[in-house]
Every structure is written in structure tokens, then in C-alpha cells.
Amino acid sequence: xxxxxxxxxLNRPDGVAAAVDGGAxxxxxxxxxxxxxxxxxxxxxxxxxxxxxxxxxxxxxxxPDDALIAATLAEAPLGLLQLHGAETPERVAAxxxxxxxxxxxxxxxxxxxxxxxxxxxxxxxxRLLFDAKPPRRADALPGGNGLPFDWRLLAGRQWAVPWMLxxxxxxxxxxxxxxxxxxxxxxxxxxxxxxPGVKNPARIAAFLAAARxx
Length: 214
Ligand SMILES: O=C(O)c1ccccc1NCC(=O)[C@H](O)[C@H](O)COP(=O)(O)O
Known about the structure:
30% helix, 7 helices, binds the ligand O=C(O)c1ccccc1NCC(=O)[C@H](O)[C@H](O)COP(=O)(O)O, alpha/beta
């Protein structure tokens, strides 16, 4: 089964090149200043400018206001907006209507109730992304923590919109995660890094090769 891959948190040309050359379907850029993967809109614009049109360029935002999204889009031509905060279904619908771009809403998963919480978003988001719930530390990031969740929570579930799996994926657990959840799209960040914010092009290439071999 072909599995589309999003490489998230790209912040250097060599990482972008490895993602594009390896056939990533989505390139993710983090517009959340607290993140070690943060890029400015101008930096993202420069990274995107060197790429082919094929991979979808994804902008990751955490509870953004309209001004931040507008300022980002003015410099970085994004094809998908990833909302990784506590955005309500109403806010997702509003962002989608205001910017005329598809929206992917992230759901933080730890318990069955978290999976059920995705349902209201299936009528307003173009895509869902299931990620691990972040650790309960005051300084924890909302995502990009390299933590998997219990994939059995998604097993056998059908969704009215496309979705991606993320959270602690690596070249070693990718096949098991896809087998258990039935995901046809996955998102990885920490698993292709040497340290938070430091992408390793060889690890990006290896992950994409493993996805092609599924
Ligand atoms: O990457 C970040 O620093 C980040 C900051 C704030 C919100 C989300 C963030 N990342 C999200 C992702 O990279 C992925 O969508 C997902 O969480 C997978 O990350 P990982 O477990 O590191 O592979």
C-alpha cells in the first residue's frame, strides 16, 4: 500500500532537498516561535522557492490569529494549513473560509475519548492528523515530541475525511504503525533528526525509502 509521507519541521535546504528527492508528499514548516524547528515566513518562502510544485507545502500553526496566517502566506506559498493547537471546529471552519486553503486539524491522542473528539472536525476540516498527546510539563511543546501513542486506538476506524498518523514514528516502527492503524499517510519530525530541530538528510532518505517499501 503506498503511504504518503509528510516531513515536518524542515528548516534547512539540505533537509528540504532530501525530502523532495526521496518523494515526500508534504513538506512541513513550523510557524510556532517556541519550537526548535521554527522558521520565519521569509525563511520558509526561501526554502519553498527552491522546490518543485509537487509536494504540498504545509504551514504548522498553534492557535494562530488571522494576522499571523495572513503575514505568513504573504511570504510563504502554502498549500495546506495545519492547526496544532486547541482550535475549535468553528475556528477551523473560519480559517478555511477566510484563507481559501485546505485545513488539517491535529487531534492529540492518549485515550479513546480523544479519538471520539475528532468527530466534530470531520465536517469542517479537509484532513485530520492524529498525534500523541504532549507530556504534562509546563514547557512541553504541543507536538514534535517524538512520542508514539497507542495505535490500537485507531485500529479499524473509518473517517469521513483523509487523515495522517504521527507521533514518534521512526524507520523502525513505521511498518508496524501503518499495519496497526491502516494509515495511508504519515507525518514524522523527531524520527528523522539528530537532535530537536536538527534534521538528518540521511535519516529523511531512509524513512522515505521505508515508506516506499511498504
Ligand atoms: O515540531 C514542533 O516543534 C512542533 C511545535 C508545536 C506544535 C507542533 C510541532 N510539531 C508537530 C510535528 O512535527 C508533527 O506534526 C508531529 O507532532 C510528529 O512529531 P514527532 O513525534 O516528532 O515525529
